[in-house]
């Protein structure tokens, strides 16, 4: 077998392996996009990122509200709870 043929066969094998890897990645991406659509109603990763930011802001507001309520409760009833 000539050196050029060996080079060709090695390059062909590498190309096939890379194509297989790309096909698997494409399939994984399709499954993840479908999961985003099904679970969160998002049509794209950008839409999912915007939803995540919005939910993080809402969670931060809710956390602040709950912490304020907890502080008010502790201030009002804290002495009753110490016993």
Describe it for me?
With 83 residues, this protein is mostly helical. It folds into 2 domains: 1-41; 44-83. Helices cover 90% and strands 0% of the residues. The longest helix has 38 residues, at 3-40. The chain is rod-shaped. It starts with a helix and ends with a helix.
Which key terms come to mind for this protein?
mainly alpha, 2 domains, 83 residues, 90% helix
DSSP summary: helix tally: 2
Approximate helicity band? over 70%
Given the C-alpha coordinates, what overall shape results? rod-shaped
Span between N and C termini?
A: 90 Å
Strand/helix succession:
HH
Calculate the mean pLDDT score and round it: 94
Spans of at least 5 consecutive residues with low confidence: none
Which structural category do the helix and sheet elements fall into? mainly alpha
- The rounded Rg comes to 28 Å
List the helices and strands and how they pair.
Elements: H1 3-40, H2 45-81
Quick overview of this protein structure:
The protein is built from two helices and no strands.
């Amino acid at each position: 077998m000539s050196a050029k043929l060996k080079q060709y066969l090695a390059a062909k094998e590498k190309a096939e392996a890379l194509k297989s890897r790309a096909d698997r990645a494409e399939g994984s991406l399709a499954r993840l996009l479908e999961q985003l659509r099904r679970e969160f109603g998002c049509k794209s990763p950008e839409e999912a990122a915007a939803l995540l930011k919005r939910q993080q802001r809402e969670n931060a507001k809710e956390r602040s509200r709950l912490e304020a309520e907890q502080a008010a409760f502790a201030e009002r009833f804290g002495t009753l709870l110490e016993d």
